[in-house]
Specification:
The complex is a heterodimer of chains A (about 160) and B (about 450).
Chain A: H1 6-16, H2 26-37, H3 42-52, H4 56-65, E1 79-84, H5 87-90, H6 94-105, E2 118-123, E3 135-137, E4 140-142, H7 147-155
Parallel strand pairs in A: 1-2
Antiparallel strand pairs in A: 1-3, 3-4
Helix pairs in contact in A: 1-2, 2-3, 3-4
Chain B: H1 22-27, H2 32-38, H3 42-52, H4 64-69, E1 80-85, H5 94-101, H6 103-116, E2 121-126, H7 131-146, E3 162-167, H8 177-184, E4 208-212, H9 213-225, H10 227-231, E5 234-235, E6 247-248, E7 250-257, E8 263-268, H11 273-280, E9 290-294, E10 303-304, H12 316-319, E11 329-334, H13 339-353, H14 359-376, H15 383-394, H16 406-431
Parallel strand pairs in B: 1-2, 1-4, 2-3, 7-11
Antiparallel strand pairs in B: 5-6, 7-8, 9-10, 9-11
Helix pairs in contact in B: 2-6, 2-9, 3-6, 5-6, 6-9, 13-14, 13-16, 14-15, 14-16, 15-16
The chains are: A alpha+beta (about 160), B alpha/beta (about 450).
Protein backbone atom coordinates (compact mmCIF):
# COMPACT_ATOMS: atom_id res chain seq x y z
CA UNK A 1 0.00 0.00 0.00
CA UNK A 2 1.15 3.47 -0.80
CA UNK A 3 2.42 5.62 2.06
CA UNK A 4 1.51 8.85 0.26
CA UNK A 5 -2.18 9.71 0.36
CA UNK A 6 -4.00 10.51 -2.85
CA UNK A 7 -4.17 14.12 -1.71
CA UNK A 8 -0.39 14.24 -1.18
CA UNK A 9 0.18 12.79 -4.64
CA UNK A 10 -2.22 15.35 -6.11
CA UNK A 11 -0.44 18.26 -4.37
CA UNK A 12 2.95 17.01 -5.55
CA UNK A 13 1.61 16.62 -9.09
CA UNK A 14 0.24 20.20 -9.07
CA UNK A 15 3.60 21.56 -7.94
CA UNK A 16 5.53 19.77 -10.70
CA UNK A 17 4.17 22.20 -13.28
CA UNK A 18 5.44 25.23 -11.37
CA UNK A 19 9.19 24.61 -11.50
CA UNK A 20 11.69 23.79 -14.22
CA UNK A 21 13.13 20.97 -12.09
CA UNK A 22 11.42 18.13 -10.27
CA UNK A 23 13.80 18.47 -7.31
CA UNK A 24 12.27 21.88 -6.52
CA UNK A 25 9.12 20.05 -5.40
CA UNK A 26 11.06 18.48 -2.49
CA UNK A 27 10.00 21.00 0.16
CA UNK A 28 6.34 21.18 -0.95
CA UNK A 29 6.23 17.35 -0.92
CA UNK A 30 7.79 17.09 2.55
CA UNK A 31 5.37 19.73 3.84
CA UNK A 32 2.23 17.99 2.60
CA UNK A 33 3.33 14.62 3.99
CA UNK A 34 4.28 16.02 7.40
CA UNK A 35 1.02 18.01 7.60
CA UNK A 36 -0.97 14.83 7.02
CA UNK A 37 1.04 12.34 9.09
CA UNK A 38 3.01 14.36 11.64
CA UNK A 39 6.25 12.92 10.26
CA UNK A 40 7.94 11.85 7.04
CA UNK A 41 8.61 8.12 7.09
CA UNK A 42 11.36 6.29 5.22
CA UNK A 43 8.72 4.81 2.93
CA UNK A 44 7.36 8.31 2.21
CA UNK A 45 10.88 9.54 1.41
CA UNK A 46 11.33 6.70 -1.01
CA UNK A 47 7.97 7.34 -2.71
CA UNK A 48 8.66 11.07 -3.01
CA UNK A 49 12.04 10.22 -4.52
CA UNK A 50 10.35 7.98 -7.11
CA UNK A 51 7.97 10.74 -8.18
CA UNK A 52 10.72 13.38 -8.33
CA UNK A 53 13.16 10.99 -10.06
CA UNK A 54 15.75 11.42 -7.33
CA UNK A 55 17.52 9.09 -4.95
CA UNK A 56 15.96 8.79 -1.47
CA UNK A 57 19.32 10.03 -0.15
CA UNK A 58 18.77 13.36 -1.90
CA UNK A 59 15.36 13.78 -0.29
CA UNK A 60 16.77 12.78 3.09
CA UNK A 61 19.68 15.21 2.67
CA UNK A 62 17.26 18.11 2.29
CA UNK A 63 14.90 16.83 4.99
CA UNK A 64 17.67 16.51 7.56
CA UNK A 65 19.02 20.02 6.89
CA UNK A 66 15.79 21.66 8.02
CA UNK A 67 15.18 20.89 11.69
CA UNK A 68 11.51 21.33 10.82
CA UNK A 69 10.84 17.81 9.54
CA UNK A 70 10.37 14.75 11.75
CA UNK A 71 11.05 11.11 10.97
CA UNK A 72 8.80 8.22 12.02
CA UNK A 73 10.99 7.58 15.12
CA UNK A 74 10.11 11.05 16.36
CA UNK A 75 6.61 12.05 15.19
CA UNK A 76 4.83 15.27 16.14
CA UNK A 77 1.94 15.54 18.57
CA UNK A 78 -1.45 16.78 17.37
CA UNK A 79 -0.39 20.37 17.92
CA UNK A 80 3.07 21.86 17.57
CA UNK A 81 3.82 24.82 19.82
CA UNK A 82 6.90 26.94 19.18
CA UNK A 83 8.08 29.41 21.83
CA UNK A 84 10.42 32.14 20.62
CA UNK A 85 13.71 32.58 22.49
CA UNK A 86 15.46 35.19 20.30
CA UNK A 87 16.56 38.52 21.74
CA UNK A 88 13.32 40.60 21.57
CA UNK A 89 11.33 37.76 23.18
CA UNK A 90 14.09 36.95 25.68
CA UNK A 91 14.06 40.58 26.82
CA UNK A 92 10.38 40.18 27.65
CA UNK A 93 10.44 36.75 29.25
CA UNK A 94 10.61 34.24 26.37
CA UNK A 95 13.17 31.98 28.02
CA UNK A 96 11.19 31.90 31.28
CA UNK A 97 8.00 31.11 29.36
CA UNK A 98 9.65 28.15 27.66
CA UNK A 99 11.09 26.93 30.99
CA UNK A 100 7.67 27.26 32.66
CA UNK A 101 5.95 25.20 29.94
CA UNK A 102 8.66 22.52 30.14
CA UNK A 103 8.02 22.28 33.84
CA UNK A 104 4.21 22.25 33.60
CA UNK A 105 4.17 19.62 30.86
CA UNK A 106 7.17 17.70 32.18
CA UNK A 107 8.94 17.64 28.82
CA UNK A 108 12.00 19.22 27.21
CA UNK A 109 11.92 21.33 24.03
CA UNK A 110 11.51 19.01 21.06
CA UNK A 111 9.47 16.46 23.05
CA UNK A 112 5.77 15.61 22.99
CA UNK A 113 3.44 15.34 25.99
CA UNK A 114 2.70 11.80 27.17
CA UNK A 115 -0.86 11.98 25.81
CA UNK A 116 0.49 12.80 22.34
CA UNK A 117 -1.39 16.09 22.23
CA UNK A 118 1.33 18.73 22.12
CA UNK A 119 4.90 18.94 20.86
CA UNK A 120 6.82 21.79 22.46
CA UNK A 121 9.58 23.45 20.41
CA UNK A 122 11.99 26.29 20.94
CA UNK A 123 12.01 28.74 18.05
CA UNK A 124 14.42 31.36 16.88
CA UNK A 125 12.85 34.70 15.94
CA UNK A 126 9.26 34.12 14.81
CA UNK A 127 8.90 37.63 13.38
CA UNK A 128 6.39 38.86 15.92
CA UNK A 129 8.72 40.95 18.11
CA UNK A 130 6.03 43.64 18.48
CA UNK A 131 4.19 41.09 20.63
CA UNK A 132 6.99 39.50 22.66
CA UNK A 133 6.99 36.89 23.98
CA UNK A 134 5.20 35.20 21.12
CA UNK A 135 4.32 31.68 20.09
CA UNK A 136 3.48 29.80 16.95
CA UNK A 137 0.86 27.03 17.04
CA UNK A 138 1.33 24.98 13.85
CA UNK A 139 1.61 28.01 11.54
CA UNK A 140 -0.49 30.64 13.34
CA UNK A 141 1.25 33.28 15.45
CA UNK A 142 -0.09 34.52 18.78
CA UNK A 143 1.43 37.64 20.31
CA UNK A 144 2.11 38.58 23.95
CA UNK A 145 1.45 35.19 25.52
CA UNK A 146 1.75 33.92 29.09
CA UNK A 147 2.06 30.27 30.13
CA UNK A 148 -1.66 30.32 31.04
CA UNK A 149 -2.56 31.67 27.57
CA UNK A 150 -0.57 28.90 25.94
CA UNK A 151 -2.25 26.21 28.01
CA UNK A 152 -5.68 27.64 27.35
CA UNK A 153 -5.09 27.80 23.61
CA UNK A 154 -3.51 24.40 23.11
CA UNK A 155 -4.84 22.30 25.99
CA UNK A 156 -8.29 23.84 26.27
CA UNK A 157 -8.07 25.35 29.75
CA UNK A 158 -5.44 26.26 32.31
CA UNK B 1 10.34 66.88 4.36
CA UNK B 2 10.22 66.91 8.15
CA UNK B 3 9.07 63.85 10.06
CA UNK B 4 6.06 65.79 11.40
CA UNK B 5 4.69 66.38 7.86
CA UNK B 6 5.29 62.81 6.80
CA UNK B 7 2.27 60.74 5.83
CA UNK B 8 2.77 56.97 5.72
CA UNK B 9 3.25 55.55 2.25
CA UNK B 10 3.76 51.81 2.71
CA UNK B 11 1.52 51.66 5.79
CA UNK B 12 -1.12 54.08 4.42
CA UNK B 13 -3.77 51.37 4.21
CA UNK B 14 -3.04 49.67 7.55
CA UNK B 15 -6.07 49.13 9.70
CA UNK B 16 -8.63 49.92 6.99
CA UNK B 17 -11.45 47.38 6.81
CA UNK B 18 -10.63 44.54 4.40
CA UNK B 19 -7.33 46.18 3.45
CA UNK B 20 -6.16 42.81 2.13
CA UNK B 21 -8.78 42.53 -0.64
CA UNK B 22 -8.38 43.48 -4.28
CA UNK B 23 -11.60 45.49 -4.14
CA UNK B 24 -10.40 47.90 -1.44
CA UNK B 25 -6.89 48.06 -2.91
CA UNK B 26 -8.31 49.11 -6.28
CA UNK B 27 -10.68 51.61 -4.64
CA UNK B 28 -7.58 53.25 -3.11
CA UNK B 29 -5.92 53.56 -6.51
CA UNK B 30 -4.25 50.17 -6.57
CA UNK B 31 -2.89 48.71 -9.83
CA UNK B 32 -2.78 52.12 -11.53
CA UNK B 33 1.01 51.93 -11.27
CA UNK B 34 0.93 48.56 -12.99
CA UNK B 35 -1.14 49.92 -15.90
CA UNK B 36 1.28 52.84 -16.16
CA UNK B 37 4.35 50.57 -16.09
CA UNK B 38 2.93 48.19 -18.70
CA UNK B 39 2.53 51.15 -21.08
CA UNK B 40 6.26 51.90 -20.70
CA UNK B 41 9.26 50.03 -22.06
CA UNK B 42 10.72 47.68 -19.47
CA UNK B 43 14.02 49.59 -19.62
CA UNK B 44 12.17 52.82 -18.82
CA UNK B 45 10.79 51.19 -15.65
CA UNK B 46 14.33 50.19 -14.66
CA UNK B 47 15.51 53.75 -15.32
CA UNK B 48 12.86 55.23 -12.99
CA UNK B 49 13.68 52.77 -10.20
CA UNK B 50 17.41 53.43 -10.69
CA UNK B 51 16.86 57.19 -10.61
CA UNK B 52 14.80 56.95 -7.41
CA UNK B 53 17.84 55.77 -5.45
CA UNK B 54 15.82 52.87 -3.97
CA UNK B 55 18.13 50.54 -2.09
CA UNK B 56 17.14 47.01 -1.10
CA UNK B 57 15.31 46.84 2.21
CA UNK B 58 16.39 43.28 3.10
CA UNK B 59 19.60 44.20 4.88
CA UNK B 60 22.43 44.76 2.43
CA UNK B 61 21.05 47.99 0.93
CA UNK B 62 22.13 47.27 -2.62
CA UNK B 63 20.61 49.69 -5.18
CA UNK B 64 17.59 47.87 -6.64
CA UNK B 65 17.61 49.36 -10.15
CA UNK B 66 21.34 48.68 -10.49
CA UNK B 67 20.81 45.06 -9.45
CA UNK B 68 18.28 44.70 -12.27
CA UNK B 69 20.74 46.04 -14.85
CA UNK B 70 23.19 43.22 -14.03
CA UNK B 71 20.91 40.79 -15.87
CA UNK B 72 22.42 39.88 -19.25
CA UNK B 73 21.00 42.03 -22.07
CA UNK B 74 20.55 39.36 -24.72
CA UNK B 75 19.33 36.24 -23.11
CA UNK B 76 17.17 33.52 -24.54
CA UNK B 77 15.17 31.50 -22.09
CA UNK B 78 13.74 32.34 -18.72
CA UNK B 79 14.80 34.96 -16.19
CA UNK B 80 13.48 34.49 -12.64
CA UNK B 81 12.46 36.90 -9.90
CA UNK B 82 12.61 35.50 -6.37
CA UNK B 83 10.93 37.46 -3.64
CA UNK B 84 12.70 37.05 -0.34
CA UNK B 85 9.99 36.67 2.28
CA UNK B 86 12.17 34.60 4.61
CA UNK B 87 12.28 37.46 7.13
CA UNK B 88 14.03 35.86 10.13
CA UNK B 89 16.46 38.46 11.47
CA UNK B 90 15.76 38.82 15.21
CA UNK B 91 13.73 41.99 15.76
CA UNK B 92 12.31 42.13 12.22
CA UNK B 93 8.60 41.84 11.40
CA UNK B 94 7.87 44.49 8.76
CA UNK B 95 7.35 42.00 5.93
CA UNK B 96 4.81 40.12 8.02
CA UNK B 97 2.75 43.26 8.63
CA UNK B 98 3.02 44.42 5.00
CA UNK B 99 1.83 41.06 3.67
CA UNK B 100 -0.94 40.47 6.18
CA UNK B 101 -2.43 43.95 5.89
CA UNK B 102 -1.75 44.95 2.29
CA UNK B 103 -0.71 41.99 0.14
CA UNK B 104 -1.70 43.62 -3.14
CA UNK B 105 0.74 46.48 -2.61
CA UNK B 106 3.56 43.91 -2.47
CA UNK B 107 2.13 41.89 -5.37
CA UNK B 108 1.71 44.96 -7.59
CA UNK B 109 5.40 45.70 -6.96
CA UNK B 110 6.22 42.12 -7.92
CA UNK B 111 4.34 42.31 -11.24
CA UNK B 112 5.99 45.64 -12.14
CA UNK B 113 9.44 44.36 -11.14
CA UNK B 114 8.90 41.13 -13.09
CA UNK B 115 7.91 43.16 -16.16
CA UNK B 116 11.00 45.38 -15.75
CA UNK B 117 13.33 42.39 -15.48
CA UNK B 118 11.61 40.41 -18.31
CA UNK B 119 10.59 37.69 -15.87
CA UNK B 120 7.65 35.45 -16.70
CA UNK B 121 7.84 33.25 -13.58
CA UNK B 122 8.33 34.69 -10.10
CA UNK B 123 8.81 32.66 -6.93
CA UNK B 124 7.67 34.14 -3.64
CA UNK B 125 9.77 32.42 -0.97
CA UNK B 126 7.90 32.80 2.31
CA UNK B 127 9.08 31.57 5.68
CA UNK B 128 6.88 28.72 6.95
CA UNK B 129 6.12 30.49 10.23
CA UNK B 130 4.06 33.13 8.39
CA UNK B 131 1.03 30.90 7.87
CA UNK B 132 -1.41 33.78 7.93
CA UNK B 133 0.66 35.60 5.30
CA UNK B 134 0.64 32.45 3.20
CA UNK B 135 -3.15 32.24 3.22
CA UNK B 136 -3.58 35.97 2.61
CA UNK B 137 -1.17 35.85 -0.34
CA UNK B 138 -2.79 32.73 -1.77
CA UNK B 139 -6.18 34.44 -1.80
CA UNK B 140 -4.71 37.65 -3.23
CA UNK B 141 -2.96 35.75 -6.03
CA UNK B 142 -6.22 33.92 -6.85
CA UNK B 143 -7.98 37.30 -7.07
CA UNK B 144 -5.27 38.54 -9.43
CA UNK B 145 -5.61 35.57 -11.80
CA UNK B 146 -9.38 36.07 -11.82
CA UNK B 147 -8.96 39.74 -12.71
CA UNK B 148 -6.31 39.52 -15.45
CA UNK B 149 -3.59 40.91 -13.16
CA UNK B 150 -1.61 37.66 -13.44
CA UNK B 151 -1.50 34.93 -16.07
CA UNK B 152 -1.63 35.57 -19.81
CA UNK B 153 -1.78 38.99 -21.43
CA UNK B 154 -1.99 41.03 -18.22
CA UNK B 155 -4.37 44.00 -18.66
CA UNK B 156 -4.22 43.46 -22.43
CA UNK B 157 -0.52 44.35 -22.56
CA UNK B 158 0.70 41.11 -24.08
CA UNK B 159 2.81 40.48 -20.96
CA UNK B 160 2.50 37.09 -19.21
CA UNK B 161 3.46 36.31 -15.62
CA UNK B 162 2.95 33.52 -13.11
CA UNK B 163 3.69 33.98 -9.39
CA UNK B 164 4.19 30.87 -7.26
CA UNK B 165 4.28 30.79 -3.48
CA UNK B 166 7.04 28.63 -2.01
CA UNK B 167 7.10 27.91 1.70
CA UNK B 168 10.38 27.59 3.59
CA UNK B 169 11.07 25.26 6.52
CA UNK B 170 12.33 27.38 9.41
CA UNK B 171 15.95 28.13 8.52
CA UNK B 172 17.44 31.64 8.87
CA UNK B 173 20.04 30.94 6.20
CA UNK B 174 17.31 30.85 3.54
CA UNK B 175 17.27 34.65 3.77
CA UNK B 176 20.75 34.73 2.20
CA UNK B 177 19.94 35.09 -1.48
CA UNK B 178 21.86 32.08 -2.78
CA UNK B 179 20.78 30.01 0.23
CA UNK B 180 17.23 30.92 -0.75
CA UNK B 181 17.88 29.79 -4.32
CA UNK B 182 19.32 26.45 -3.20
CA UNK B 183 16.34 25.94 -0.88
CA UNK B 184 13.92 26.80 -3.68
CA UNK B 185 15.64 24.19 -5.83
CA UNK B 186 14.88 21.57 -3.16
CA UNK B 187 18.32 21.32 -1.63
CA UNK B 188 19.89 22.14 1.73
CA UNK B 189 20.17 25.94 1.92
CA UNK B 190 23.91 26.17 1.56
CA UNK B 191 24.87 29.58 0.18
CA UNK B 192 26.79 29.50 -3.08
CA UNK B 193 30.25 30.84 -3.75
CA UNK B 194 29.99 34.11 -5.70
CA UNK B 195 30.69 34.90 -8.49
CA UNK B 196 28.72 33.97 -10.44
CA UNK B 197 26.13 36.27 -8.90
CA UNK B 198 22.45 35.33 -9.26
CA UNK B 199 21.94 37.93 -12.02
CA UNK B 200 24.18 35.76 -14.23
CA UNK B 201 23.46 32.31 -12.79
CA UNK B 202 20.80 32.02 -10.12
CA UNK B 203 17.70 29.86 -9.68
CA UNK B 204 17.79 26.75 -11.86
CA UNK B 205 21.09 28.08 -13.29
CA UNK B 206 19.23 30.94 -14.97
CA UNK B 207 19.64 34.73 -14.57
CA UNK B 208 17.78 35.66 -11.39
CA UNK B 209 16.96 38.70 -9.30
CA UNK B 210 16.27 38.29 -5.57
CA UNK B 211 14.39 41.20 -3.97
CA UNK B 212 12.96 41.81 -0.51
CA UNK B 213 9.23 42.22 0.26
CA UNK B 214 9.49 45.84 1.48
CA UNK B 215 11.53 46.71 -1.61
CA UNK B 216 8.69 45.36 -3.75
CA UNK B 217 6.15 47.43 -1.80
CA UNK B 218 8.07 50.62 -2.68
CA UNK B 219 7.93 50.00 -6.44
CA UNK B 220 4.27 50.94 -7.22
CA UNK B 221 4.72 54.26 -5.37
CA UNK B 222 7.87 55.09 -7.33
CA UNK B 223 6.06 54.41 -10.61
CA UNK B 224 3.03 56.47 -9.51
CA UNK B 225 4.84 59.47 -8.05
CA UNK B 226 8.23 59.41 -9.75
CA UNK B 227 11.87 59.24 -8.74
CA UNK B 228 12.04 62.85 -7.51
CA UNK B 229 9.20 62.32 -5.09
CA UNK B 230 10.98 59.28 -3.64
CA UNK B 231 14.22 61.25 -3.32
CA UNK B 232 12.43 64.06 -1.48
CA UNK B 233 12.41 61.76 1.56
CA UNK B 234 15.41 60.56 3.50
CA UNK B 235 19.08 61.43 3.61
CA UNK B 236 20.94 62.60 0.48
CA UNK B 237 24.26 61.08 -0.52
CA UNK B 238 27.33 62.38 1.27
CA UNK B 239 29.18 64.57 -1.30
CA UNK B 240 32.47 63.74 0.40
CA UNK B 241 31.95 60.00 0.07
CA UNK B 242 31.78 58.81 -3.55
CA UNK B 243 30.73 55.33 -2.39
CA UNK B 244 27.65 56.58 -0.55
CA UNK B 245 24.49 55.94 -2.58
CA UNK B 246 22.24 57.93 -0.21
CA UNK B 247 19.29 56.73 1.86
CA UNK B 248 16.12 57.76 0.09
CA UNK B 249 12.45 57.08 0.60
CA UNK B 250 10.24 55.93 3.44
CA UNK B 251 11.43 53.12 5.71
CA UNK B 252 9.69 50.73 8.03
CA UNK B 253 11.32 50.69 11.46
CA UNK B 254 10.49 47.74 13.73
CA UNK B 255 10.80 48.60 17.42
CA UNK B 256 10.91 45.89 20.07
CA UNK B 257 12.47 45.01 23.41
CA UNK B 258 12.32 47.25 26.46
CA UNK B 259 10.03 50.03 25.20
CA UNK B 260 6.53 50.98 26.28
CA UNK B 261 5.03 50.63 22.81
CA UNK B 262 6.72 48.07 20.59
CA UNK B 263 5.53 48.25 16.99
CA UNK B 264 6.08 49.14 13.37
CA UNK B 265 6.65 52.78 12.40
CA UNK B 266 7.09 54.27 8.94
CA UNK B 267 9.27 57.37 8.62
CA UNK B 268 11.60 58.98 6.12
CA UNK B 269 15.03 57.34 6.34
CA UNK B 270 17.38 58.84 8.87
CA UNK B 271 15.49 59.21 12.18
CA UNK B 272 17.75 58.73 15.20
CA UNK B 273 17.33 55.78 17.50
CA UNK B 274 16.70 58.19 20.37
CA UNK B 275 13.78 59.89 18.59
CA UNK B 276 12.41 56.57 17.49
CA UNK B 277 12.36 55.30 21.07
CA UNK B 278 11.13 58.51 22.74
CA UNK B 279 8.70 59.88 20.13
CA UNK B 280 7.41 56.71 18.48
CA UNK B 281 7.73 53.90 21.01
CA UNK B 282 6.64 55.59 24.23
CA UNK B 283 10.17 55.64 25.68
CA UNK B 284 12.11 52.97 27.54
CA UNK B 285 9.83 50.89 29.76
CA UNK B 286 9.52 51.15 33.55
CA UNK B 287 11.12 54.62 33.54
CA UNK B 288 14.51 53.06 32.91
CA UNK B 289 17.29 54.12 30.57
CA UNK B 290 18.53 52.33 27.48
CA UNK B 291 21.87 50.60 27.91
CA UNK B 292 22.29 49.32 24.38
CA UNK B 293 20.25 49.38 21.18
CA UNK B 294 20.39 47.03 18.22
CA UNK B 295 20.11 49.28 15.15
CA UNK B 296 18.88 46.84 12.51
CA UNK B 297 18.52 43.25 13.59
CA UNK B 298 20.90 41.44 15.92
CA UNK B 299 23.53 40.85 13.20
CA UNK B 300 24.23 44.59 13.03
CA UNK B 301 25.65 44.73 16.57
CA UNK B 302 24.94 47.30 19.31
CA UNK B 303 24.93 51.04 19.79
CA UNK B 304 25.66 52.33 23.28
CA UNK B 305 23.43 54.89 25.01
CA UNK B 306 25.69 57.75 23.98
CA UNK B 307 25.45 56.69 20.32
CA UNK B 308 21.66 56.87 20.15
CA UNK B 309 21.62 60.15 18.20
CA UNK B 310 23.08 58.30 15.22
CA UNK B 311 20.74 58.57 12.22
CA UNK B 312 19.27 55.23 11.20
CA UNK B 313 20.08 55.55 7.50
CA UNK B 314 22.28 53.24 5.44
CA UNK B 315 25.49 55.03 6.50
CA UNK B 316 24.72 55.98 10.12
CA UNK B 317 25.17 52.78 12.16
CA UNK B 318 28.48 52.07 10.38
CA UNK B 319 29.88 55.34 11.70
CA UNK B 320 29.56 54.06 15.29
CA UNK B 321 31.09 50.68 14.57
CA UNK B 322 27.91 48.72 13.80
CA UNK B 323 27.76 46.53 10.70
CA UNK B 324 25.08 48.65 9.03
CA UNK B 325 21.39 49.55 8.97
CA UNK B 326 20.41 45.94 8.27
CA UNK B 327 16.66 45.52 8.41
CA UNK B 328 16.15 48.69 10.52
CA UNK B 329 14.83 46.50 13.33
CA UNK B 330 15.57 48.40 16.53
CA UNK B 331 15.78 46.34 19.72
CA UNK B 332 16.06 48.31 22.95
CA UNK B 333 17.93 46.82 25.92
CA UNK B 334 17.43 48.55 29.29
CA UNK B 335 20.04 49.32 31.94
CA UNK B 336 18.87 46.48 34.22
CA UNK B 337 19.97 43.92 31.63
CA UNK B 338 23.31 42.13 31.56
CA UNK B 339 25.21 42.41 28.27
CA UNK B 340 26.64 38.98 29.03
CA UNK B 341 23.10 37.56 28.81
CA UNK B 342 22.38 39.59 25.68
CA UNK B 343 25.54 38.47 23.91
CA UNK B 344 24.91 34.88 24.95
CA UNK B 345 21.48 35.11 23.33
CA UNK B 346 22.96 36.50 20.11
CA UNK B 347 25.69 33.86 19.93
CA UNK B 348 23.21 31.08 20.66
CA UNK B 349 21.05 32.30 17.76
CA UNK B 350 23.89 32.19 15.24
CA UNK B 351 25.15 28.83 16.50
CA UNK B 352 21.62 27.48 15.95
CA UNK B 353 21.32 29.02 12.48
CA UNK B 354 24.80 28.52 11.02
CA UNK B 355 24.35 26.20 8.04
CA UNK B 356 27.58 24.40 8.89
CA UNK B 357 29.14 24.73 5.46
CA UNK B 358 32.16 26.91 6.38
CA UNK B 359 34.37 25.83 9.28
CA UNK B 360 35.06 29.29 10.80
CA UNK B 361 31.31 29.97 11.12
CA UNK B 362 30.23 26.49 12.21
CA UNK B 363 32.98 26.28 14.84
CA UNK B 364 33.15 29.97 15.73
CA UNK B 365 29.46 30.34 16.50
CA UNK B 366 29.37 27.10 18.50
CA UNK B 367 32.49 27.82 20.56
CA UNK B 368 31.60 31.42 21.28
CA UNK B 369 28.26 30.18 22.65
CA UNK B 370 30.07 27.61 24.83
CA UNK B 371 32.46 30.25 26.16
CA UNK B 372 29.54 32.50 27.09
CA UNK B 373 27.75 29.55 28.72
CA UNK B 374 30.87 29.06 30.82
CA UNK B 375 31.01 32.73 31.78
CA UNK B 376 27.32 32.69 32.72
CA UNK B 377 27.97 29.63 34.83
CA UNK B 378 30.55 31.53 36.92
CA UNK B 379 33.50 29.69 35.38
CA UNK B 380 34.73 32.37 32.98
CA UNK B 381 38.33 33.50 32.68
CA UNK B 382 39.43 37.03 31.88
CA UNK B 383 41.28 35.63 28.85
CA UNK B 384 37.89 34.51 27.48
CA UNK B 385 37.15 38.11 26.53
CA UNK B 386 40.08 38.32 24.13
CA UNK B 387 39.34 34.82 22.91
CA UNK B 388 35.84 35.94 21.95
CA UNK B 389 37.34 38.92 20.13
CA UNK B 390 39.77 36.67 18.30
CA UNK B 391 36.96 34.36 17.18
CA UNK B 392 34.84 37.31 16.03
CA UNK B 393 37.76 38.66 13.99
CA UNK B 394 38.36 35.33 12.28
CA UNK B 395 34.97 34.51 10.78
CA UNK B 396 33.03 36.16 8.00
CA UNK B 397 33.32 37.57 4.51
CA UNK B 398 35.14 40.62 5.85
CA UNK B 399 38.17 38.60 7.03
CA UNK B 400 37.39 36.50 3.93
CA UNK B 401 36.99 33.13 5.60
CA UNK B 402 33.38 32.25 4.80
CA UNK B 403 31.07 32.00 1.78
CA UNK B 404 28.28 34.22 3.09
CA UNK B 405 27.71 37.05 5.52
CA UNK B 406 25.99 35.06 8.29
CA UNK B 407 29.32 34.86 10.12
CA UNK B 408 29.84 38.63 9.85
CA UNK B 409 26.43 38.98 11.47
CA UNK B 410 27.49 36.56 14.19
CA UNK B 411 30.79 38.38 14.74
CA UNK B 412 29.40 41.91 15.00
CA UNK B 413 27.42 41.59 18.25
CA UNK B 414 30.54 40.01 19.79
CA UNK B 415 32.83 42.82 18.62
CA UNK B 416 30.45 45.61 19.63
CA UNK B 417 29.49 44.09 22.98
CA UNK B 418 33.10 43.65 24.02
CA UNK B 419 34.47 46.91 22.61
CA UNK B 420 31.64 49.00 24.03
CA UNK B 421 30.90 47.12 27.28
CA UNK B 422 34.22 45.48 28.18
CA UNK B 423 34.26 46.57 31.86
CA UNK B 424 30.90 44.84 32.35
CA UNK B 425 32.30 41.56 31.01
CA UNK B 426 35.41 41.89 33.20
CA UNK B 427 33.35 42.63 36.28
CA UNK B 428 31.01 39.71 35.59
CA UNK B 429 33.89 37.26 35.22
CA UNK B 430 35.79 38.57 38.28
CA UNK B 431 32.69 38.30 40.46
CA UNK B 432 32.30 34.63 39.53
CA UNK B 433 28.53 35.00 39.74
CA UNK B 434 26.09 32.83 37.86
CA UNK B 435 23.28 34.06 35.69
CA UNK B 436 20.09 34.09 37.73
CA UNK B 437 17.61 32.82 35.17
CA UNK B 438 17.48 31.11 31.82
CA UNK B 439 17.42 34.64 30.46
CA UNK B 440 18.02 37.56 32.77
CA UNK B 441 16.89 39.37 35.83
CA UNK B 442 14.51 42.25 35.26
CA UNK B 443 12.45 40.72 32.49
CA UNK B 444 9.28 40.86 34.53
Amino acid sequence: MSELSSNAKKVIEEHLGRYPSKQAVTLPALHVVQEEKGCVSRKAISEIADILELSPAQINDTLSFYGFFRTEEDPLGKKRVWICRSLPCMLRGGDELLAELCSRWNIQPGQTTADGEVTLELAECLGACDGAPCMLVDDELTLCVTADDVEKQVRGGA
Amino acid sequence: MSNEDFKPVLLARQGKPNSHTLETYKADGGYQALAKALAMKNTEVIDVVKASGLRGRGGAGFPTGLKWTFLPKDVSGPIYLCINGDESEPGTFNNRVLIEQDPHQVLEGIVISSFATRTTTAYFYLRYEYGRCYRVLKDAIDEMYANNLLGKNILGSGYDLDVHLHRGACAYICGEETGLIESLEGKRAWPRIKPPFPAIEGAFRRPTVVNNVETMACIPHIINHGAEWFMSMGVPKDPNNPRDAGSYGPKLYCISGHVNKPGLVELPMGISARDLIDKHAGGVWKGRKAKAVVPGGISMGFMSEKELDTPLDFAGPGRVGCLGLGTAAVVVIDDHTSMVDVLYNACRFFAHESCGQCTPCREGTAWSTKILERIRDGRGKLSDIDLLLEISGSMGTIPGTTICGLADGAAWPMKNAIHKFRPEFEEYIKSGRRSESPALAGAH
